[in-house]
Design goal:
Blueprint lengths: L1 H10 L8 H34 L3 H31 L3 H28 L14
Helix pairs in contact: 2-3, 2-4, 3-4
């Protein structure tokens, strides 16, 4: 009867810390893939779409909003993975995901500030004027 209790405790992910080799084998590739995705999405997803718009404001705005939405979804996914890694007590995987979450939060903040800056009206503009 003691063996079944011990076997049951070993199956719970929070009962023992994840081995260092497994932890690092997950943390390093996930960190590199998530960081590379953010960089490549910034360059190719947003940059090339803005370049291809050739000054068309509607396409540039659509590309900016799509980029903000993609980064927001990556931030949510990274935080969920960090919580799961915390449940499995994989310390280095949690740290790697939190670093990517900080990076994604920074990218999201920069993107939203660029969006807000490009869509503000001039101070001399009257609110209901036709030229605003």
């Amino acid at each position: 009867m003691t063996d079944t209790v011990a076997a049951r405790e070993r199956r719970r992910p929070w009962s023992h810390r994840t081995r260092l080799g497994v932890d690092l084998a997950l943390a390093i590739p996930l960190f590199l893939v998530e960081t590379a995705w953010l960089v490549l999405d910034w360059i190719y997803g947003l940059g090339l779409e803005v370049w291809a718009a050739q000054g068309d404001r509607a396409r540039i705005d659509a590309a900016g909003l799509a980029h903000i939405e993609r980064v927001r979804m990556v931030l949510i996914a990274v935080l969920i993975l960090a919580v799961l890694a915390g449940i499995f007590r994989a310390r280095w995987t949690v740290i790697a995901h939190l670093l990517v979450a900080v990076l994604a939060g920074g990218v999201l903040t920069i993107s939203q500030l660029e969006w807000a800056h490009s869509h503000t009206s001039s101070p001399a503009c009257i609110r209901y004027s036709a030229n605003c």
